[in-house]
């Protein structure tokens, strides 16, 4: 079983990436194969709403890195999405990826349905709830099972780099609990 982690932070030394790496390490320790994709060096254009994907069965109108990431999403059994929160929402690059992935998957047999996944959001103080909800709604509309944790998987960090994220013991514990629950759900569903 394979879990794909996608981080939306464009910063080098990203706190969001640090939380994701901790999550994926915990999943790997449970025997799952993991892969991390950062949107940092990727170009993801917004959805044009052209509906070409209903005929082409892919996003045919744009030339960017979307198709490569969508293929990884389709192949994965689990997907974890991590986004920093700058203005009480998921970063635009992540939302562009998710909007386009939903359209293409919907017109191709809803290939995201039946997977397991969940969100991780990272902010300095506030805005988690809105961004966390955006990601949860994406999982739900695509028929992806979201395991819980002991609290929401939100991290507290301000400056870039693992220095901040590594100090959030409570946030890291909730991410670890989520990863344990995700592994349990995947083992029940897919083994």
Can you describe this structure?
The protein has helices at 15-29, 53-56, 66-75, 92-106, 128-141, 162-165, 169-190; strands spanning 2-7, 33-38, 78-84, 116-123, 154-156. With 191 residues, the protein is an alpha/beta fold. The longest helix is centred in the C-terminal third of the chain and has 22 residues, at 169-190. The protein is built from 7 helices and 5 strands. Helix 1 links the parallel strand 1 and strand 2. The protein has a single domain (2-190), classed as Flavodoxin domain (Rossmann fold), CATH 3.40.50. Helices cover 44% and strands 16% of the residues. The chain starts with a strand and ends with a helix. It has a 5-stranded parallel β-sheet, sandwiched between helices.
Mean pLDDT: 93
Alpha-beta classification = alpha/beta
Count the beta strands.
Answer: 5
The CATH architecture: 3-Layer(aba) Sandwich
The number of distinct structural domains comes to: 1
Inertia-based shape: globular
Task: Going across the biggest sheet, name each strand in turn.
Answer: 2-1-3-4-5
Low-confidence stretches: none
Distance between the termini: 9 Å
Question: Fraction of residues in helices?
Answer: 40-55%
User: Please, what is the CATH homologous superfamily?
Assistant: Flavodoxin domain
Oligomer: single chain
Strand composition percent? 15-25%
Question: Topology of this structure?
Answer:
Blueprint: E1 2-7, H1 15-29, E2 33-38, H2 53-56, H3 66-75, E3 78-84, H4 92-106, E4 116-123, H5 128-141, E5 154-156, H6 162-165, H7 169-190
């Amino acid at each position: 079983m394979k879990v794909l982690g996608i981080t939306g932070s464009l910063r080098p030394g990203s706190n969001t990436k640090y939380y994701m790496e901790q999550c994926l390490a915990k999943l790997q320790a449970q025997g799952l194969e993991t892969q991390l994709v950062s949107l940092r060096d990727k170009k993801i254009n917004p959805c044009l709403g052209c509906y070409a994907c209903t005929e082409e069965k892919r996003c045919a109108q744009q030339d960017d890195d979307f198709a490569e990431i969508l293929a990884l999403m389709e192949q994965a059994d689990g997907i974890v999405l991590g986004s920093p929160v700058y203005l009480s929402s998921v970063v635009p690059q992540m939302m562009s990826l998710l909007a386009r992935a939903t359209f293409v998957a919907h017109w191709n047999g809803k290939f995201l349905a039946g997977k397991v996944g969940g969100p991780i959001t990272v902010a300095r103080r506030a805005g988690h709830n809105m961004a966390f909800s955006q990601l949860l709604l994406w999982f739900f509309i695509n028929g992806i099972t979201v395991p819980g944790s002991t609290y929401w998987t939100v991290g507290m960090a301000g400056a870039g780099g693992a220095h901040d994220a590594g100090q959030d013991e409570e946030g890291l514990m909730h991410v670890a609990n989520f990863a344990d629950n995700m592994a349990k759900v995947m083992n029940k569903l897919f083994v």
